[in-house]
Protein backbone atom coordinates (compact mmCIF):
# COMPACT_ATOMS: atom_id res chain seq x y z
CA UNK A 1 0.00 0.00 0.00
CA UNK A 2 1.20 3.52 -0.79
CA UNK A 3 0.25 6.90 0.61
CA UNK A 4 1.51 10.42 0.27
CA UNK A 5 1.24 12.78 3.21
CA UNK A 6 -0.49 11.45 6.29
CA UNK A 7 -1.01 7.83 7.23
CA UNK A 8 -4.59 6.61 6.77
CA UNK A 9 -6.34 6.72 10.14
CA UNK A 10 -7.21 3.00 10.14
CA UNK A 11 -3.48 2.12 9.93
CA UNK A 12 -2.13 4.75 12.31
CA UNK A 13 -1.69 2.58 15.42
CA UNK A 14 -0.04 -0.31 13.58
CA UNK A 15 2.08 2.07 11.49
CA UNK A 16 3.35 3.73 14.67
CA UNK A 17 4.20 0.28 16.03
CA UNK A 18 5.95 -0.67 12.79
CA UNK A 19 7.99 2.55 12.99
CA UNK A 20 9.06 1.57 16.51
CA UNK A 21 10.36 -1.75 15.10
CA UNK A 22 13.39 0.17 13.83
CA UNK A 23 14.73 -0.07 17.38
CA UNK A 24 15.55 -3.73 16.72
CA UNK A 25 17.89 -2.81 13.86
CA UNK A 26 21.60 -2.95 14.64
CA UNK A 27 22.76 0.56 15.49
CA UNK A 28 25.39 2.28 17.61
CA UNK A 29 23.08 4.98 18.98
CA UNK A 30 21.86 4.56 22.53
CA UNK A 31 18.60 6.34 21.73
CA UNK A 32 15.63 4.26 20.62
CA UNK A 33 12.68 5.67 18.73
CA UNK A 34 9.26 5.70 20.36
CA UNK A 35 6.68 6.37 17.68
CA UNK A 36 3.26 6.77 19.21
CA UNK A 37 0.39 7.69 16.88
CA UNK A 38 0.63 11.27 18.16
CA UNK A 39 4.35 11.38 17.47
CA UNK A 40 3.74 10.08 13.94
CA UNK A 41 1.22 12.87 13.31
CA UNK A 42 3.64 15.46 14.71
CA UNK A 43 6.40 14.22 12.41
CA UNK A 44 4.09 14.31 9.38
CA UNK A 45 3.20 17.93 10.22
CA UNK A 46 6.84 18.98 10.59
CA UNK A 47 7.83 17.39 7.27
CA UNK A 48 4.92 19.11 5.49
CA UNK A 49 5.81 22.49 7.05
CA UNK A 50 9.33 22.09 5.68
CA UNK A 51 7.86 21.78 2.20
CA UNK A 52 8.76 18.11 1.86
CA UNK A 53 6.45 15.38 0.66
CA UNK A 54 6.24 12.15 2.66
CA UNK A 55 5.70 9.04 0.53
CA UNK A 56 5.22 5.75 2.37
CA UNK A 57 5.08 2.23 1.01
CA UNK A 58 3.84 -0.27 3.57
CA UNK A 59 3.29 -4.01 3.70
CA UNK A 60 -0.15 -4.52 5.20
CA UNK A 61 -1.50 -7.74 6.69
CA UNK A 62 -5.27 -7.29 6.89
CA UNK A 63 -5.65 -3.88 8.52
CA UNK A 64 -2.19 -3.91 10.10
CA UNK A 65 0.93 -2.21 8.77
CA UNK A 66 3.77 -4.67 9.38
CA UNK A 67 6.58 -3.02 7.41
CA UNK A 68 7.24 0.32 5.77
CA UNK A 69 9.72 2.52 4.04
CA UNK A 70 9.45 6.30 3.98
CA UNK A 71 10.74 8.56 1.24
CA UNK A 72 10.84 12.33 1.58
CA UNK A 73 11.09 14.52 -1.48
CA UNK A 74 10.73 18.21 -2.30
CA UNK A 75 7.95 19.35 -4.62
CA UNK A 76 8.67 19.11 -8.35
CA UNK A 77 10.74 22.02 -9.65
CA UNK A 78 8.89 24.83 -11.35
CA UNK A 79 8.99 25.11 -15.12
CA UNK A 80 11.41 28.02 -14.70
CA UNK A 81 14.06 25.91 -13.02
CA UNK A 82 15.40 22.74 -14.52
CA UNK A 83 16.99 21.47 -11.32
CA UNK A 84 16.45 17.80 -10.58
CA UNK A 85 14.91 16.85 -7.26
CA UNK A 86 16.64 14.65 -4.71
CA UNK A 87 14.71 12.29 -2.46
CA UNK A 88 15.82 10.56 0.70
CA UNK A 89 14.75 7.31 2.26
CA UNK A 90 14.38 8.08 5.93
CA UNK A 91 13.39 4.83 7.64
CA UNK A 92 12.62 1.26 6.71
CA UNK A 93 11.47 -1.24 9.31
CA UNK A 94 9.72 -4.59 9.55
CA UNK A 95 7.84 -5.94 12.56
CA UNK A 96 9.81 -8.81 14.10
CA UNK A 97 7.32 -11.56 13.24
CA UNK A 98 7.41 -10.60 9.53
CA UNK A 99 11.19 -10.54 9.05
CA UNK A 100 13.37 -12.80 6.94
CA UNK A 101 10.72 -13.35 4.27
CA UNK A 102 11.58 -10.32 2.12
CA UNK A 103 9.24 -7.43 2.97
CA UNK A 104 12.04 -4.88 3.39
CA UNK A 105 13.47 -5.63 -0.05
CA UNK A 106 10.03 -5.64 -1.62
CA UNK A 107 8.79 -2.38 -0.12
CA UNK A 108 12.04 -0.52 -0.85
CA UNK A 109 12.11 -1.68 -4.48
CA UNK A 110 8.37 -0.99 -4.88
CA UNK A 111 8.67 2.49 -3.34
CA UNK A 112 11.52 3.38 -5.70
CA UNK A 113 9.60 2.11 -8.75
CA UNK A 114 6.54 4.12 -7.72
CA UNK A 115 8.65 7.23 -7.13
CA UNK A 116 10.30 6.84 -10.54
CA UNK A 117 6.93 6.55 -12.31
CA UNK A 118 5.24 9.39 -10.42
CA UNK A 119 8.18 11.76 -10.02
CA UNK A 120 10.47 11.55 -13.06
CA UNK A 121 12.11 14.81 -11.90
CA UNK A 122 13.84 12.94 -9.05
CA UNK A 123 17.38 12.25 -10.20
CA UNK A 124 18.81 10.76 -7.01
CA UNK A 125 17.59 8.96 -3.92
CA UNK A 126 19.84 8.95 -0.88
CA UNK A 127 19.74 6.81 2.22
CA UNK A 128 21.94 6.40 5.25
CA UNK A 129 22.31 3.37 7.44
CA UNK A 130 24.16 2.37 10.56
CA UNK A 131 27.32 0.55 9.59
CA UNK A 132 26.31 -2.18 12.04
CA UNK A 133 23.07 -2.80 10.14
CA UNK A 134 24.43 -5.29 7.63
CA UNK A 135 20.95 -6.61 6.61
CA UNK A 136 19.68 -3.23 5.37
CA UNK A 137 23.05 -2.39 3.77
CA UNK A 138 22.85 -5.69 1.88
CA UNK A 139 19.28 -4.94 0.75
CA UNK A 140 20.28 -1.45 -0.38
CA UNK A 141 23.19 -2.75 -2.44
CA UNK A 142 21.03 -5.51 -3.93
CA UNK A 143 18.44 -2.99 -5.19
CA UNK A 144 21.07 -0.64 -6.61
CA UNK A 145 22.27 1.81 -3.94
CA UNK A 146 25.99 2.53 -4.11
CA UNK A 147 27.89 3.32 -0.91
CA UNK A 148 29.60 6.69 -1.18
CA UNK A 149 30.48 7.89 2.32
CA UNK A 150 31.27 6.27 5.65
CA UNK A 151 29.81 8.41 8.42
CA UNK A 152 31.17 8.16 11.94
CA UNK A 153 29.79 9.59 15.13
CA UNK A 154 32.05 10.54 18.01
CA UNK A 155 30.87 11.05 21.58
CA UNK A 156 32.65 13.15 24.18
CA UNK A 157 31.92 11.89 27.69
CA UNK A 158 30.82 14.78 29.86
Automatic annotation (TrEMBL):
* InterPro entries (alphabetical): Acyl_CoA_acyltransferase (IPR016181)
Q: What is this protein called?
A: N-acetyltransferase domain-containing protein
From which organism does this entry originate?
Actinacidiphila guanduensis
Amino acid sequence: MHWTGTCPEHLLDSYAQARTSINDAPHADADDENRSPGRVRDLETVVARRGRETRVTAAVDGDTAVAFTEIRVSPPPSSIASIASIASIEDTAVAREHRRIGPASWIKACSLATLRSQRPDVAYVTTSNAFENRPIRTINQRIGFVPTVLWTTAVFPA
